[in-house]
Amino acid sequence: MRRIRKIAGGTQERVRAELQQAAQALLNRPWITKRKDPEMFLLVKSHYEKLRDWFHDNAGFSLIVTRSFAKLEKIPGSYQPWMRIETFHGPRDYALFAYGLWYLEGRGEAEQFLLSEMVDAIREHLLSLDVNLDWTLYEHRLSMARALKKLRELEVLVAVEGEESDWAREGGNHNVLYEASPMARYVLRRFPKDLTEYRSMEELIAPAEQVLPAAADSATGSDVQARRHKIFRRLMQEPVVYDWQWSDEERRYVQTQRSWLIEQMRNMLNLEGRRFREGLLFAWTDVTGEMELFPTLAGESDLLMLLAGEIRRILHKSPGIFEKDEHGNLLLTRAEFEGILSRLKEYHGDYWSKGHREKTSSFLADQLIAHLREWNLGMQAGVHTVKLYPAFMRWNGTYDWKEKAE
Predict the structure, then answer these.
(1) Alpha carbon of 104 to those of 34, 80, 107, 322: distances in Å?
(2) Which of 36, 246, 295, 340 sits a CA distance of 20 to 30 A from 113?
(3) Which DSSP category does 245 fall into?
(4) pLDDT score of 3
């Protein structure tokens, strides 16, 4: 009996570890291809039903598995600035990315074509819509090159010979030979009806297969499902969600279903949840995980950790020195924020990068505030106030001083 229980328990733990590994990969990658990661692809296929059901029931995500790739169709619970494509500079880049996919959907698998053929087809199509795209303009070519580079990163476009950067610099003097991939038609999310028929963002982010039940209390059932989906999406995709960032109904759900939410996130994603005064927070304890983690490898994260430790020391000496709002956020004046940074640079500057040492206090403050906002740890509130959220104050960074042996 002991051996049976031990073997069964070991198998159960192995299955859960495999599920967690597959779920994390699906959440953090655009897709998993059989060619590039055959082991992870087979792992997803072997646990397809459990993964499909869990993501569908809890988040309204669809899991697509074909003979060559697996993709989880992720929809944000709340759209955030950091969800953008970082290498894109503006709307034109996104539009050309979409039209690049439009062109690729008409190509056969492994069909080869030239960059000149692709850009000419896109330009002619846009002209039929009264949109003028001029490839003699460097900025237009540069936008197209950024879109093409992203398509290549996603493996929906394969460059056989040549570089689009050369075409962007010199135009018609250079060309690129491409090969199409069948995955192009799976990049953008598909909708059951024309986009012009949707009246709000809420309709767009609702699961495509969500249908109201016919029962008399259908509205209540649909509301509960939509609420659960939005909560799971935000908890999975955002670094921190505070109580005050939920609606009243969502906050009540999070508070009353806390134990169940923690259990679900731990079992499927290996995220550890804990209830704090400011909200239900989840943390990843293994630095080798798929997801992007804070503190990041960027120097701004190191400086923010150091800043958090310094503010904690200031508060320990003078607990009431900074104001707080009704949500427990610390309110510093911009002058106070920059002053603390200046003192840290004066004391620890030798350990900072040259770039950070040479920046003015104002420019460095802007950089760190942008990093805070990206991770939902703080923000600039008006012209003269910096707001630091409670999760930021749970960090404490300092340098490990080691005295030299005499």
Answers:
(1) 21, 29, 5, 56
(2) 36
(3) G
(4) 38
